[in-house]
Amino acid sequence: SEFMYKEGSIKLDIFNEQIIKKTKSPLELLLLMLLYVVGLTVGMLLIFFGLTFAPTFIFTFIILAGVVFYFTIKIGTNLNFEFEYSVTNNLFDVDKIIAKSRRKRLVSMDVKSIDDVGVYSSEKFKGRSFDLTVNAVGNLNQDGIIYIVTRHPTKGKTLVIFQPNEKIVDALKKS
To answer: Is 19 helix (H, G, I), strand (E, B) or coil?
Structure first.
């Protein structure tokens, strides 16, 4: 059997994606550093306490210190996340990727259901309320931040704030 191509008979799916890394504010960096300092201090105090006051149970204290170190690192890495925007045909999805290992869908919408779109400024939305606000921006102080307002079928009136590149903008326009 021979494959016959007839112009217009094959429709290719539109698929574009972009990943934006969330940059930490100075306050977030300070809190992260504080987390690590507290975790290290608590772990070292457990070992010191075990050596000083209960040398026969030192192994237990070392295990407890290891658990403290583990959870400190786990919590610290879970504070690293990025956002993924993807446009597939008429669907626009925004996901949050946590520690490069877990994915959480923040919102998925039909592009045709978008009510309003434009360049984001916080003054534009003062006093307005939404059922869901998705802030999927790496850094709010950068240019190129866009907003979308839509009526989501299950989440209600939704505001999505994001930083698309030209490919994502073009894919949204085509859809």
So the answer is: strand
